[in-house]
Amino acid sequence: MTQTTVQPPQSLAAMHHDFLALAEATTDHRAFQPEIIWGELQTADYIRASYMRLRRVMDVTDEDIDAAVTTRLARGRLVGQDGHAYHVLLGEHAITSVVGGAGVMRAQLQHLMDRLDTPGLRLGIIPAAAELEVTVPGGFAIYNGVRVGIDSLVGPQTVTEVPLVQRFTAVFDLLARSAAYGPDARTLIEAAHDRI
Fold first, then answer.
1. CA atoms within 13 Å, Cβ hemisphere of 159
2. Across the chain, which distance is largest between two alpha carbons, in Å?
3. Whole-angstrom Cα distance, residue 87 to residue 179?
4. Is 142 in a helix, a strand, or coil?
């Protein structure tokens, strides 16, 4: 029987530094986020607002928030660099759910539009009305096709067992079939921006 492992509790600051090292070592990034903007495409204000929300349910310090901002922005700078390929799927809810107020969200959506043509980035938006070929309960990321990271309230989970990684890869490929790309993705983002 295969199992996933829940990493032992560590500070959010330490966790973010670990994720930065993982992002730097990954050349093939695939990520699915149905509810929020994916970390590497977040603005500083969006990151800060997201972590301020976490204070309602978790012990999040100012140091944790500063580390999140610093390391996520560093991960974001990898997008577009040679040797790093990204295929990112966002649910439409991620672009329509306001985080941090209207101003923060408008700037975040503008940032997404500015990044759409970044070399090495393929960004897809899955419309809320899309008929999905498969459904999953939450977001995940696939690193170099050999490791899956799953966010959860109990802590990050890591999957490395080959059959499970293959399952997540198959799910990602099925989700990608429902996504809008290029001008169609831009239209969805612009519409979300205009509604705020």
1. 20
2. 49
3. 11
4. strand
| Euclidean distance between CA atoms 83 and 153, whole angstroms | 32
Distance CA(118)–CA(93), nearest Å, equals 23
DSSP letter (8 states) at residue 156: -
Is this prediction's pTM over 0.90?
A: yes
Taking only the tens of pLDDT, the chain with its 196 residues reads: 555 554 445 677 788 888 899 999 999 999 999 999 999 999 999 999 999 998 888 888 899 899 999 999 999 999 999 999 999 999 999 999 999 999 999 999 999 999 999 999 999 999 999 999 998 889 999 999 999 999 877 778 999 999 999 999 999 999 999 999 999 999 999 999 999 9
AA letter at 96: T
Q: What is the rounded distance in angstroms from the CA atom of residue 72 to the CA atom of residue 74?
A: 5
Q: What count of residues does the chain have?
A: 196
Contact 104, 46 (CB under 8 A): yes
Q: Can you tell me the distance from the alpha carbon of 40 to that of 184, in angstroms, rounded to the nearest whole number? A: 21
Strand order in the sheet with 140-143: 5-6, 157-159, 147-150, 140-143, 28-33, 85-91, 121-126
Cβ density class 48-82: b for 16+ within 10 Å, e for less: bbbbeeeeeeeebeeebbebbbbbbbbbbebbeee
